[in-house]
């Protein structure tokens, strides 16, 4: 289950500030995994937030499949760096709560929550509260919460940025497996070139103000390509 995402002539900004994006065109094929890299403030999160429907474009439009994005929707799941779990709900309770807006019956919410927690390797932690879970486990709950709604697009904003190196590598492996199994379209914002190259089939470098596409590379399958890495590093350093 996946949708193509298109940004057409997209301009966006905040209040009376300078535009963050201007006339940006980008297409993300259904089922593709794309990493967005770029210096702080170039508009990576703004791209994600317009696709999520949190930020309304000032011009142009975003479409997910055939439908223009007019606001948040369950077919577009979001995972942020900070998991934003309710501390007074268990892992299962957090996932179930997110399913309420889908209007699912209670038993179905429970079934889906437990299935999603099992899918992220947290079957044993379902009845634990966030304070009883490590950072990596909390991020698994956040991932389960997004997956339980069975999204066709997954929007991830530096989701592993706050994790230690080992946990981060484990989460990357988990995410690759989930993506291979589900085929969801993934847009993944990161500051880390190696993370982008390890995960994505395509790496886009944004830069400038307003932000624009500085580079757009397909990442070949197989072992990391040092030439591609240094090319992308040069684009990143060119700001
Ligand atoms: N809610 C907001 N209100 C006002 N300005 C904002 C808001 N969110 C972002 N901005 C501004 O928009 C610009 C782009 O921000 P954005 O978060 O999209 O960049 P980014 O590339 O994701 O940065 P980072 O890597 O630091 O997360 C920045 O100048 C930022 O200060």
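Sequence proposed for the structure above (239 residues):
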């Amino acid at each position: 289950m996946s949708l193509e995402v298109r940004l057409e002539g997209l301009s966006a900004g905040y209040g009376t500030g300078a535009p963050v994006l201007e006339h940006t065109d980008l297409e993300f094929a259904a089922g593709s995994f794309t990493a967005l890299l770029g210096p702080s403030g170039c508009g990576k999160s703004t791209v994600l937030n317009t696709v999520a429907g949190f930020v309304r474009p000032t011009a142009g439009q975003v479409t997910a499949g055939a439908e223009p994005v007019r606001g948040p929707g369950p077919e577009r799941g979001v995972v942020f760096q900070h998991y934003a779990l309710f501390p007074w709900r268990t892992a299962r309770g957090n996932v179930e709560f997110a399913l309420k807006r889908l209007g699912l019956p209670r038993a179905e919410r429970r079934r889906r929550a437990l299935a999603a927690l099992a899918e992220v390797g947290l079957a044993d932690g379902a009845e634990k509260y966030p304070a009883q879970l490590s950072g990596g486990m909390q991020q698994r709950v956040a991932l389960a919460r997004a997956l339980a709604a069975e999204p066709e697009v997954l929007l991830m904003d530096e989701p592993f940025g706050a994790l230690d190196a080992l946990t981060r590598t484990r989460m990357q492996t988990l995410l690759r497996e989930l993506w291979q199994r589900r085929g969801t379209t993934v847009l993944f914002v990161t500051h880390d070139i190696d993370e982008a190259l390890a995960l994505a089939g395509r790496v886009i470098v944004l830069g400038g103000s307003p932000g624009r596409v500085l580079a757009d590379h397909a990442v070949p399958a197989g072992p990391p390509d040092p030439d591609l890495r240094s090319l992308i590093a040069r684009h990143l350093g060119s700001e």
